[in-house]
Design brief:
This protein has 13 helices and 14 strands. The chain is α+β, with helices and mostly antiparallel strands. The strands form 4 sheets. Strands 5, 6, 7, 8, 9 and 10 form a 6-stranded antiparallel sheet that branches. Strands 12-13-11-14 form a 4-stranded antiparallel sheet, with helices on one face. A two-stranded antiparallel ribbon has the order 1-2. The N and C termini lie far apart (80 Å). The relative contact order is 0.07.
Amino acid sequence: MAREVNEYGFEIFKGGHGRKENQKLKTFLVLQYLMRESDESHVVSAKDIVGYLQQECGIDAERRSIYKDIEEINKAMLIVEDEISVDEAEERLAENEDEKTVVYDKNKKGFYVRYRRFDLFDIRLLAECVYSAKFIEKGQAERLVDVVAGFVGEAQRNNIRHDALLTDRVKTDNKSVLANLSEINDALSEELDGKRHEPEKISFKYLEYTIQNLGKPRERRKGAYYIVSPYRLLINDGNYYLLGYDEEKRKMLTYRIDRMKSVQRMGEPREGKEAASAIEISKYSQQCFSMFGGETTRVQIRFINPLLDTVIDRFGKSGAQYAKLDDSHFIITTEVRVSDQFFSWVCAFGRKAKILYPDSVAADFKAYLDKIREMYET
C-alpha cells in the first residue's frame, strides 16, 4: 500500500498516535509550521501544533514539549543570526523578550513568528516587481511570486498572490527569457565555473510580430543568426535589453531579451571595445527614448513650469542642467540620442514644450511634424 506524504515528504498518519520516525525532526517541523501558518495577525496555539505533528507528521507530542521546542527555536535563531554562544543567547533571551523570534500573544492566546528575514512590505514589493516586469512570461512570473511569497505566512502569502496577480498586464509570450539571461550573463562573465573567463560573442535569432500571425512571432533576417558582442544588460520601461556590438552593422545596438531565441555562447572574443567605451552607460537609458539609438546631441528644450516633475523623472537631476527662463517657463540642457522616438516624446507635450537648440534638431523636429501633417492632408 502506497504511503501518503505531505508537501514536505513526511508520511501522513491517520488515526491514533503516530509513529516516532520523525521525532528527531520535531523542533524543525514546529518552526516550519509556525513560519507557514503564523504572523502578527494570525496565531497558532500549542494545541494546533500538537495536532499538526500528530496528524501530518506522525509525531507524538505534548503541549509542554512545544513550549520547550519554541525556547530552543528562539535560542537557535539568536545563535545563528548573531553568531554568539549558547550561554550568551540564553542570557539575552532572559533579559529581553524582544530578542525572541517566536512570541506568545496573551490576548490572542497563541504563538506567531515576529522576525523574518524579509517583512511583508519587502515581499509585497518584490512580488510586484516580478509581475510588473514585461520581460518575464506570465507563468514564470507566477512561479517566482510563489517563491518570494514563501518567506511569509500562509495568510499573507495568499494576499500577496492576489494583489500581485490582480491586474492584467502586458507580458511576453517568450518562456526562454530567463534561460536567455543566464546564457548572456555567462558570456559577460570574467569568471566562469571558478576559472578566469574572457567575455565572448553570442549568437541568437531575433523575433518580430507580423499582422498576419499575432500568435506566433517570426524570425527576422529569414532565420539567420545575429552575431553580437554583449556589453551590458539594461532595464527600461519594464523591458530587459542587451547593449551589444552588432557584427553585421558594425555599431552598438540594443536588443530586447524577450525577443531573442536560441541564445548561444560562441567562444570567440568580443569585438567593438572602442565603440562600447565611447558610451557612458550610466546616462545611456536617459539619453535613449524607448531604447532607440541615434546621434548623441546636446539640446535645450523649453517647458512650462508644471512639467518640471515630469522632466526630472525622464532626465534626472544630476545629468542635466535646469534654469529658470521666466515666471512661466524653465529650460533644460541635456544630451539625448536624437531619433523619431525623441521627437514623439517632445510632441506629446504640444505647445507646452519647444526645442530651442541646436537649430538643426529644431529643423528636424519641424520636418517630423510636417510629415505627420501631410499624412493627414492626403
